[in-house]
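Example record for the data management plan.
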Amino acid sequence: SALWPELDLTTVTVHGQPPTAKWLAPLTFRTHTWGIGEHVIVAEHGLLENRRTIVPHRRMQSASVQQGPLQRRLGLASLSVHTTDGPVDLQIYHLAEADARRLLQDQVERARLARRATDSVAEVAADEAAGQALEVEMPEGRTGFEPTEGEPLR
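Corresponding structural encoding:
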């Protein structure tokens, strides 16, 4: 994509909805797809107007699982992913309930790891740009290479 040249959506495996979702979305059942890539989560849906939403893992602020009474009866649930900087919310409709809950937990972990990696890269880049080395202040008499009595190695 010209807007996001490093993103290759062909590496994202596409998943559909379970067969029971046909009861809740008979016309759009086949258009509801989703996938997870190394750096993004993607959802696509729509019959006349197709909408694709792409959210980088590092931009996820929160996620939630919703389940209405009909979804509960059919064993389905929907996942929402909310972003930090804008009105972009990703919806994955009518997943199997266990899959939605597992996807929620996995996505929270992916977002945490992506933010940690981004923060580490940004800190190192800022230090390199400033021409400074990282310094750790050690307690008096410690070099940082040997543990004190009873202290575990890190």
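Summary line stored alongside the record: The longest strand covers residues 76-83.
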